[in-house]
Amino acid sequence: MALFDLPLDRLERYRSDSPEPPDFDPFWASSLAQARTHDVLVDVVPVATGLALVDTWDVTFAGFDGHPVRAWYTRPAGVTGDLPTVVEYLGYGRGRGLPQERLTWPVAGCAHLLMDTRGQGSQYGSGGDTPDPVGSDPATPGFVTRGILDPATYYYRRVLTDAVRAVDAARALPAAVATTPPSTAGTHRPDGPAPDASTRGAGPSGGTVPPVAVVGNSQGGGIALAVAGLASDLAAVMVSAPFLCDIPRALAITDADPYGEIVRYLAVHRGADEQVLRTLSYVDGVHHARRATAPALFATGLRDTICPPSGVFAAHNVYGGDAEIAVYPYNHHEGGEAHHTARQLTWLAARLPHP
Fold this sequence. Notes:
The protein has helices at residues 8-11, 24-35, 104-107, 155-177, 219-230, 247-253, 259-268, 273-281, 285-291, 309-318, 337-349; strands spanning 41-47, 54-62, 68-76, 85-89, 111-115, 212-217, 236-240, 296-301, 323-328. The protein is of the alpha/beta class. The protein has a 9-stranded mixed sheet, sandwiched between helices. Residues 187-206 have low confidence and may be disordered.
């Protein structure tokens, strides 16, 4: 793919004109308050993975409307002290897969919570385990048009609420796993419901809950960016090629999926564009970025038609905290791949120090 978006010097100055809904903050405050009426941890089960250097738990936490959401929680083996935690969100169509698949952050010495994405996990990868119990009006194949005629019923309202609750769960988990040693792998906890994360509790060493960072690529990057604007006290944010940023412009310059799903929906539902764009404005990462304050590392490939670079820059350029962006001029949606992971490791180590 040749360069198709704005030149880099214009991207660095670019500002989105996507309108922000006037009730944006009350909408999200209400969504999160309702979700937080449920205890966050539902079940924490040690699992045998065959890996000697990490310990893993199968976690179920209460997401949107208390719906059960699955996750893998992995820590360096045998470490009983508090650890910084990285909460990771997944790309479009991927489920949490198997716990052996994503080991970068625990091998780097962090605790790692990998959130399953409701209703996804059958497009590629090793599968997912979290259904979406909410139906929707007619939608195109995929996820991005489900419930799209109303912000209250929109699919990503549920996903982003789940994602904030994953941070709540990460803050509660250190105390919970202290009661579920890996030697009991394959058995359920004998001590009833795990502690909630509505207040900061004690970790395995009895101290305060350690810092939390969020990370994601593509859909996962868009989710992590929204969480940065919705969750408090994050230590760091890493978003690569984030989806759902400056959505009106993306619809104008690319037909690539998932944005192409919205285009096909509107090609059938003629005249619904005003309703659809209003709904999408509640999840647009540009609006969430304005409210975020944690240090952030963005990344984009300048030839990326799936998550166009102008959307990434639109969010970066209004981000409410310190932010830098890694630019890969000759790359598409794959971006920097392992080279960028190396950069993330160095960048995060300076902002999430280990005990």
